[in-house]
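Below is a complete specimen:
___
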Amino acid sequence: MNAATIDWIERAGGLGVGALLLLTVVITVVVGLQNAIYLLQLATSSFSLWRKPAPTRTTLDLWTRQVDYSYPVTILAPAYNEELTIADSVRSLLALNYPDFRLFVVNDGSKDATMAVLHREFALEPTTIDTDVVLHMTRTIAMFQSRSNPRLFVIDKENGRKADAINCGLSYAQTPLVCVIDADSMIEPDGLLRAAEPFMTDDGALIAVGGAIRIANGCQVESGQVLTVGVPRRWIPRFQTIEYLRAFLISRIAASNWATLTLISGAFGVFRRSTLVEIGGYRHDTVGEDLEVITRLHRHCREQKRRYRITFVPEIVCWTEAPATIAGLRNQRARWQQGALETITRHRHMIGRPSYGRIGMVALPMMILEDVICPPLEVLGYVLIPTLFALGLLAPEVALSFLALSVLFGIILSLGALIHEELQVRRTPSAKGLAILALTAIVENLGYRQMNSAFRLVGMWRHLRRRTGWAAVPRAGFQGR
């Protein structure tokens, strides 16, 4: 090898190292920007909870205020292969304290014993339901009403996935408000009262209300009710408990205050039916229908130049079973990531356009940062920065900065969410439980968070490959945790 070749290799190597060092700076800046947004959300949510009057604590007070003025509500519970939890979930929904509601369980072509369980537990008999619009795409096989509880209706239909099941229930619902809930979830008894209350005092602008989702793993559940709140015994659900606290008691509260709320969890949300019908209900061609429908509601109202409002009420609590295995978690998080990218792609023309207000100028750019830019850069940083530091090519200060931004800030946010939970919601009954969750908030950032970032890359890959299959999340049932 001659001198010229050696010189070229040395220069190329120097340029390569320089490019890698520049990339580490970009990664650190992007992660720092993301954490700055998280800290702003923490400050906003803290101020909001501090200035907010204490919520009504008793169901009797809520009932007294609403019994003569509440809107009729139809609860839509799409179900697919839910034989393990369907009976408890239906009992929980039928036990809700609300003056006037119907429950529509929409069986979306389940292949297990979901329909058999419903027939056995609730004494179903054939019936018919009128409709003024058809939003679903697959055939309705039969309709049933419970002899033991006439408020319960079951619609058996061919499989069309969750969005089509919701649209089927939406087609037959005739009430001003609809509550969309996962069939494997349980609302606290006063949850529907709290969700409907903002509509009673509204001038017609309010179109959707979301609530907080909590992890039922580790809780004592009986007849569809959470009797005792506990901490999950397994680490995977424990980590998710902290994640959910962070998402709902920090991010959602802040987004609601900023008027940039683009997600009401598919596990629980209350909507003005007429507005959902106007936009054609939920889309069938996305795995992130809950995010997409809220974004489309924003788009529709903005394009119609209509006054509207979408809000979040943290006192509404809905309990759901979280994945207990790494495989189940991977499928769930990859699907969430894929759904976010589908929504961004479908509504990309809204980005940066003032006519779409804070959604186009703030919410969607933040979504791009969090769901498009951050996942690959964060995973790359976990690999690149320790490698360069070990080779002596990276200053210790830069490596420590990335570590602080990616780990220390995460711990601060998680502990902040736990403080919010204790001061405002108070669903963790014991000091031991709080101590376990505080430890979880620290340990979560030392492996679990990095694993989740990798799962998000799986979702990005599925989106690029245009895979539309629904990756199943194994369930153990409320009694099997």
User: Anything to note?
Assistant: Residues 163 and 282 are 5 Å apart (CA to CA). The chain is about 55% helix and 15% strand. The two ends are 65 Å apart (CA to CA). The mean pLDDT is 86.
